[in-house]
Design goal:
mainly beta; Immunoglobulin-like; 2 domains; 1 helix; 14% helix; rod-shaped
Amino acid sequence: MKYLLPFKIKAVHALIFILFLNFSSCCVFSTDPPDLRLTSQNFPSQVTAGQRFDLTFTVGNYSNTDCNAETTSQSIVNLKMIKQSNNFLQVNNTETLNALENDQTQIFNFSVLIEGENVTGAYNLIFTIDPNNTSGDAYRDNNVYTATITVN
């Protein structure tokens, strides 16, 4: 009987541990679908025609719950600047988005020069994460960022 007591205590501890894992977190045995999203952006609201300016965007892979997100596949990001008055596509740059693990980010730096005749005015800036959905990103509602830049 005295030999069975340590075995029973170990069995009870193991059972408690297993129950704790099952009830406290779904994350032990599974991950969530990836969610690529824009985590930061930095660019001027006004620029001067004929002078180069920089735009910076940071993309991250996060989960929508407490579990870790799955790693994404490699894909692309796209930056467009379209003049509001005539819908002229002034900038259309594409960069490679690496496969991102959970909570991993990637920074994109674009250097833009707008020059020529009739280039002044307001532009729609559109930054799109994985426009072709090749990354496995499960939540697509946060993949497009839009803003306005004025060229003087």
